[in-house]
Specification:
The chain is an alpha+beta fold. It has 18 helices and eleven strands. Strands 3-6-7-5-8-4-2-9-1-11-10 form an eleven-stranded mixed beta sheet. Helix 8 packs parallel to helix 17 and helix 11 packs antiparallel against helix 18.
């Protein structure tokens, strides 16, 4: 029998064992292909060139993340497959096959697995491409007509990325077999990720991991200015390293300490599953750490998506506070504009306020606004009453200001305390910051400082006084007609300077944020399903190693019911540990997002953690069923 035939026969006979691996790989290919389809699809072109460019950039970034994840997943799955097959492969040595021939047979068998996953992934990826985009647009609340089309570019890119990575690990496996001895191959199934360390070493790793993890938590929530992004990047590295050391040091140390307490150990089936868990932690701690980090990434991705969605909705509402706004040196500009607007639409509300625009050389602070202006406290209060806005600001003192700022999608400036603004050489203490859109879209590029009326009069000589008149129309369908009519008021002379801002209520300039929010949901599902799949694959493979141990326990009188309870408790702890560490860590990662996006995400974090729990519980149930079937 030739090597090709033998490899194909092995592949055919072991297809049941390979099924979880093939399905997991094909699911990864399906997702990657569908993300590539977004780039080459014309469905998003109706949103405009700017939105399409932003969406393409986001998809490229996510594709890079998915490619990194695919690389890790292939590395992990092929390693598990090789370890499981080495004992069987080692037997071929006694049949007269050299390591090189065995390696070639392994390459053929592994290639068959990879190609099966690739064909399934590409087939279902193409079949679900239109459905994927329909779901994406439906969740994004974007009305676009979907045309089913199969483009060759996404398939070629997916094939190139996947096959290049897969080839690396196939060759790696071949080299591993060629360099392995017969003894190492036969005993490979019993070679695991042991932590052969004494208690002092575990204690050192536990202390180091706790300190590193605590440092990561601290940096993630530390307030600051432009250094916040650097803190966040450092926090990601520290939390990842801390989680690794936690599962490699602290948790094994805790279980070993529990095993020494007879009072705790000899209750129920604890003697069985606690000792087994100690062994499992020794060999699987890297897997648990990886799963914990993946689930943390999934929760953070979902929280990011919802934060962007909430922030985007607030920004749209902010910008649409007024339909038309005028800046003019004519005090009666509002009276001139009102009749022109009323020719087409009613006016829902109208407001006016004087504004003093300052030269940037007269202002010094730590913000980076394009321009600065000062408004009187009484004028803002009157404007809020005219527009029906909430006004809860206290009047600032002679050396105090209140900043009326813009709603940014993401702000790196999280420390808002002890802010001093210098205007014309005088220091003003910022006592409050508000994002209430008192001046609507005009707050987009200009930072407005609210001062008391007396201070406003004192500052008048150092700026240009203009009058602002704002209108919100009732019939948005007549926006364009009213806008064209108001063009007659625009003027740029020394005697009559008038500028106009018109906000189209139907504008879709920021619809890319909606798509980003939806893609974050898909990332959440991909990462959490991958985490569950990794846990299932690892525990499923471990179940074959437990057969000899289970047979010994049965011979000494332990029945299947007791053994089943022990298995349920042991696997339950295997899922609980990554989930518990992730739950604690997610508080800090989501809290950091709250700081940067000024949005409450508490409910989102709770919901995402509950979803992770539900998915983990599903994988736990099928893991227990598969484990019992193989062991009992």
């Amino acid at each position: 029998m030739r090597l090709t035939q033998l490899a194909f026969l092995n592949f055919k006979n072991n297809m049941k064992n390979y099924l979880s691996l093939v399905l997991s790989l094909s699911f990864t290919i399906l997702i990657f292909l569908n993300f590539q389809n977004i780039i080459y699809s014309d469905s998003f072109e109706v949103l405009g060139a700017q939105n399409k460019d932003y969406i393409d950039i986001i998809v490229h970034v996510i594709s890079f993340v998915l490619a990194c994840f695919m690389f890790f997943f292939l590395w992990y799955s092929t390693n598990v497959f090789l370890t499981k097959r080495k004992k069987e492969i080692g037997i071929y040595v006694f049949m007269g096959l050299t390591n090189q021939k065995i390696g070639k047979m392994y390459m053929i068998e592994t290639a068959l697995i990879g190609m099966a996953a690739f064909v399934l992934g590409i087939f279902f990826g193409i079949a679900t491409a239109a459905l994927f985009q329909m779901i994406l647009l439906a969740i994004s609340d974007i009305a676009v007509e979907i045309h089913f089309q199969v483009r060759i570019e996404p398939v070629l890119i997916t094939a190139a990325v996947y096959l290049a990575m897969y080839l690396i690990f196939v060759v790696k496996g071949y080299c591993n077999i060629v360099k392995s001895s017969v003894l190492s191959m036969i005993s490979a199934s019993r070679q695991n990720e042991y932590v052969r360390q004494s208690t002092p070493v575990l204690m050192f790793k536990a202390a180091l991991g706790t300190c590193i993890l605590g440092g990561g938590y601290y940096l993630s929530v530390k307030e600051g200015g432009q250094e916040v992004m650097g803190n966040v990047m450092a926090a990601v590295v520290l939390v990842t390293a801390g989680v690794y050391l936690l599962f490699g040091g602290l948790i094994p140390y805790v279980f070993q300490s529990v095993a020494k307490s007879k009072r705790i150990l000899y209750r129920g089936q604890r003697n069985l599953w606690v000792n087994s868990m100690i062994f499992r932690m020794k060999k699987n701690y890297r897997t648990y750490a990886i799963v914990c980090v993946l689930t943390l990434c999934s929760v953070t991705a979902l929280a990011t998506g919802f934060a962007m969605k909430i922030r985007h909705a607030n920004m749209v509402q902010f910008e649409n506070t007024y339909t038309f706004q005028f800046l003019s040196n004519q005090s009666d500009i509002g009276d001139q504009a009102a009749p022109l607007i009323e020719k087409y639409s009613g006016i829902l509300y109208r407001s006016e306020i004087p504004v003093l625009f300052l030269d940037n050389v007269h202002v010094s602070n730590r913000s980076f606004a394009a321009s600065y202006a000062v408004v009187p406290y009484s004028g803002v209060k009157r404007l809020a009453e005219q527009a029906g806005m909430v006004f809860e600001l206290r009047e600032p003192g002679a050396d105090e200001v209140i900043e009326a700022g813009h709603l940014y999608l993401l702000s790196l400036l999280t420390d808002r305390s002890d802010i001093t603004v210098t205007i014309n050489g005088k220091d003003y203490r910022q006592i409050q910051e508000t994002s209430e859109p008192y001046l609507g879209y005009l707050q987009e590029q200009t930072s407005y400082y609210i001062v008391n009326d007396a201070e406003y009069e004192l500052l008048k000589p150092f700026g240009q006084s203009l009058y602002t008149s704002n209108f919100k129309i009732t019939d948005t369908d007549l926006f364009e007609a009213a806008r064209d009519e108001l063009n007659a008021l625009i003027c740029n002379t020394e005697e009559n300077f008038t500028a106009r801002v018109a906000i189209d209520p139907k504008s879709n300039d920021t619809d890319w944020v909606k798509v980003f929010y939806t893609l974050c949901i898909f990332l959440f599902l991909v990462f959490i399903m991958a985490s569950g799949s990794i846990m299932f694959m690892k525990l499923y493979n471990d179940s074959f190693e437990e057969r000899p141990r289970a047979l010994v326990m049965k011979k000494i009188g332990i029945d299947n019911k007791t053994l089943g309870k022990s298995i349920a408790a042991e696997l339950g702890m295997a899922y609980i540990l990554p989930f518990a560490v992730m739950t604690v860590s997610s508080y800090f990662s989501v809290h950091a997002l709250e700081k940067m996006m000024h949005t409450s995400l508490f409910s989102i974090r709770i919901v995402s953690v509950l979803i992770v729990f539900a998915i983990f519980f599903f994988f736990y149930l099928i893991s227990v069923a598969a484990y019992r079937k193989n062991v009992c």
